[in-house]
Write a structure and sequence with these properties.
Helix 1 packs across helix 6 and helix 13 packs antiparallel against helix 14. This protein folds into three domains: about 70 residues, lambda repressor-like DNA-binding domains (434 Repressor (Amino-terminal Domain), Orthogonal Bundle), CATH 1.10.260; about 220 residues, no CATH class; about 55 residues, no CATH class. About 40% of the residues are buried. By secondary structure, it is mainly α. The chain is elongated and about 75 Å long. Strands 1-3-2 form a three-stranded mixed β-sheet, with helices on both faces. The protein has 17 helices and three strands. The chain binds zinc ion. The site of zinc ion has 6 residues, from helix 9 and helix 10. Zinc ion binds next to helix 9 and helix 10.
């Protein structure tokens, strides 16, 4: 029997590669009309055409034949700077995210992950919402030592944005009741934490109905992030009134945030004047704190994925096995966990993975 293309898989692979139908047509010599007919299930490609498609899309043929996949709806994601992002980049980020969800489903069939514990608080202002989540998670007014561990311990699944989607800062969504955050893992440790808190803000404030897009939602998520990472009463207790550059640089170590983010927060809380804010910004800029974070903290990694991959390896299940199960390449698999596990996943011989009892993962926040 001939292998049968799954139409949604072709569309997913094409978007993952950032290709339009025209570009795929140019890469394969197959007409746009035929490609469109394949994607809509009106026509089926023969075995040779399937091989050609898989080659052009750099995916194993098996990926195109595997079970039907439901796309992540466009409305499910709030992208930052949406007006600047071409549709093809957004499609690429959505489809890369969808492949990460396949990996996540694979992991969840084998491990019992922490239960999602992200409240939906769409009617609260960002500052109050951040305080409510802090209280619910028992954080008091203390700095958050490790943002990703905290999120994972409360059931948030964290994956890496694929390399080609670097212009997308980060995005988040609920999928089958579980919260997901996709991070650009090439940023500084401080920016990574802020992005993670920003996406938590979207999950808490904006996920109940249709996700609101645009600058207002982005600003709300930023305000949530600032309040979550630098809680009002905790910052007020630090005697940062009219703070100097030195005080800001000391304070940023405490809250593990960017110097500019703390400066902004001090201004919002009325601890520095407009004039003081501008002066600090100029001085920090001169010291290199606008473009980067000199002497910054290391990027946070995923405790959950690290434990999962270690446990799998102990069972003889290599990344190559996982990739084969998912009908993707090891390189593709790496893209979704890059920067979140300490080193790139090595390949290794393929062994059949066996289904096992799902051991619970104990995560330390
Ligand atoms: Zn956002």
């Amino acid at each position: 029997m001939n292998p049968i293309l799954t139409p949604t898989r072709l569309s997913l692979a094409r978007k993952r590669r950032g290709m339009t139908l025209v570009q795929l047509s140019q890469a394969t010599g197959i007409s746009v009309r035929s490609l469109s007919a394949y994607e809509h299930g009106r026509q089926r490609p023969g075995p040779e055409t399937l091989q050609e498609l898989a080659r052009a899309l750099d995916m194993p043929v098996g990926f195109l034949l595997a079970s039907d996949v439901e796309e992540i709806p466009v409305d499910a994601i709030s992208f930052r700077a949406i007006t600047k992002l071409p549709a093809s980049t957004r499609d690429m980020a959505r489809s890369a995210g969808r492949i990460a969800l396949l990996l996540s489903e694979w992991i969840e069939q084998r491990f019992e992950l922490p239960e999602p514990d992200v409240p939906s608080l769409p009617r609260l202002d960002p500052e109050t919402a951040a305080e409510v989540v802090r209280a619910r998670w028992g954080l008091g007014e203390a700095p958050i030592p490790h943002m990703l561990r905290l999120l994972e311990a409360h059931g948030v699944r964290v994956y890496s944005l694929a390399e080609e989607c670097a212009t997308v800062d980060a995005f988040s969504l609920f999928w089958n009741g579980a919260p997901y955050i996709f991070l650009n893992t090439a940023k500084s440790g401080e920016r990574g934490r802020f992005d993670a808190a920003h996406e938590l803000g979207h999950l808490v404030l904006h996920s109940e109905h249709r996700v609101p897009h645009g600058p207002e939602a982005e600003q709300e998520a930023n305000r949530f992030a600032a309040a979550f990472l630098m809680p009002r009463s905790g910052v007020l207790a630090q005697q940062l009134v009219n703070a100097t550059v030195d005080r800001v640089l000391a304070g940023k170590q405490v809250w593990r945030v960017a110097a500019m983010a703390l400066t902004h927060r001090l201004h919002d809380l009325g601890l520095i004047t407009d004039w003081g804010y501008r002066t600090l910004c100029v001085n920090l800029s001169r010291l290199g704190y606008r473009r980067g974070e000199p002497g910054g903290i290391p990027r946070e990694t995923s405790q959950l994925l690290d434990k999962v991959f270690r446990a799998l390896r102990a069972d003889g299940i290599t990344p190559a096995t996982i990739a084969a199960d998912l009908n993707i390449t090891v390189e593709e698999l790496n893209q979704h966990v890059f920067g979140l596990v300490p080193v790139g996943l090595p390949g290794g011989a393929t062994t059949r993975s066996r289904r096992r009892d799902r051991p619970p993962l104990s995560l330390v926040p």
